[in-house]
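Record type: monomer structure entry
Structure origin: computed from sequence
Chain ID: A
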Amino acid sequence: MKKTILLSVIFAVMAAFFAYAYLSDLEITYKKMAEPVKVVAAAQRITQGSVIQKNMLAEKSVPKEYAQPKAFEAAGNLFTKDGSPVYIALNTIEPGEQILSTKVSKTNEDTGISNIIPEGQKALAVNFDSDSSLVISPGSRIDVLSIIEYSDNNKQFHQSVFPVAQNILVLAVGNNYLGSVKKDGEDFSQGKGMLTLAVNVVEAQAILLAGEKGILKYIIRPAGDETLTDIKPLKMSDIVKDISKTSYQPDIKTSAAAKDLSRRQKEALEMINKYAKGE
């Protein structure tokens, strides 16, 4: 009996010891996880393709358990020693969101364009009018349109403008790509008519087919505009009406008034001639 009680006491003491050790380790773990650490977060909404500037970032302290594994710990890590920006956003980053190394890309003369293609997309080089590309820069967003000539089922000829792709990120204009720093004497005008676009496979197919069958044009979106709208094709006949197919119906009231005015003018002229002859 005494032996049984003794063993019970020993087991109870051991259980209490292990429970205390476990709780102590758990407390230490929680304390470590609750320790504040510094992370870099977005101070404002950073749109996809934007070159990251200092005013877009803010350093803040968060519990260690809430710090993302690949988050930057200091804002200075995103810039050169002289403070020049070298990173662009591969995806849109919302205010307060931590800046992760997987969501930005460092670009320079060695990295090339493959490192700035957003996740899940491809880079497609498209040849547009070289004059129009003088007003666009990498990081802009555009809608791609195509002017296509075709005949309908009645063999009637039409010329229409079709929307091809919307809200497309421009990765490069000629040899000037996102995040590239222009060196002294470097010429970015080479290949100016060539835009490199970030597209998915379906968008690439549509743009390539439209470019093969028609003329590609684009319109530049205002900053921050990422809306998608239902745009219907526009035919030339929607702009210029064919008046040869419109039957002309004169306004009866206007015609009667004109005849009355003509009659009055004729009577007045006859009266003037009569008095002029001394009748």
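Annotation 1: DSSP finds four helices and eleven strands in the chain.
Annotation 2: The chain has a mean pLDDT of 76.
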